[in-house]
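User: Could you write out the 3D structure of this protein bound to S-adenosylmethionine? I've included everything you need below.
Assistant: Certainly. Input first, then the structure.
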Amino acid sequence: MITHGGSLEPDWDRRYREAAFEGPKEAHELVRTYAPLMPRNRPVIDVASGTGRDVLFLARQGLSAAGLERSREAIRLARGAADREGLDVWLVLGDALSLPFRKGKAGAVLVFYFLERVIMSRLVDLLAPGGLMLYETFLRKQNELDRKRDPAYLLEDGELPGYFRDLETLTHEEGVFDIGGRKRAIARYAGRKK
Ligand SMILES: C[S@@+](CC[C@H](N)C(=O)[O-])C[C@H]1O[C@@H](n2cnc3c(N)ncnc32)[C@H](O)[C@@H]1O
């Protein structure tokens, strides 16, 4: 495992540089399912957007999509993929802890495989009425299934929907799923701002 500063968290720039990059993967299932319900006239914000699999998918659907990402290398790869397809996406190099977006404007907020508990209420605040929150990430029990991740960035069972009590729940499921042929202990949530 690649770590930095003695932490269990990966050095993402290095990871992205060293991975054989064959273009961003297919969009997450939750994004493919809920894209048709996203308001068309509002931007979608993908927090910790990686190499852009979801923003690129949404841009192809004609939505205005922004990815916020701290890894310069991930932004570079996402930009290259967007340019190759001639897609207009907004890729922001920045820290999710400082969320550089205006409140109440987003048609959807996406967070996949990233967790910073201190920003959960601010993520909800970004949504416009009718906007969707899509969230999916690992549960603590993922550490029993593969490499050790820092438990500080893993969800407790049942924790995720607790952050979204003011939203109308569209989907909430937790458990061990087969994703891309691998066992993943995850929580998945989709909700709508009233
Ligand atoms: C597991 S990857 C998930 C990427 C993407 N959401 C996906 O599912 O394909 C986690 C991402 O979070 C990014 N990241 C970590 N800390 C961050 C922060 N404080 N602000 C923004 N991005 C961050 C990493 O650079 C990495 O791209």
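Residues 8 and 149 are 6 Å apart (CA to CA).
User: Perfect, thank you.
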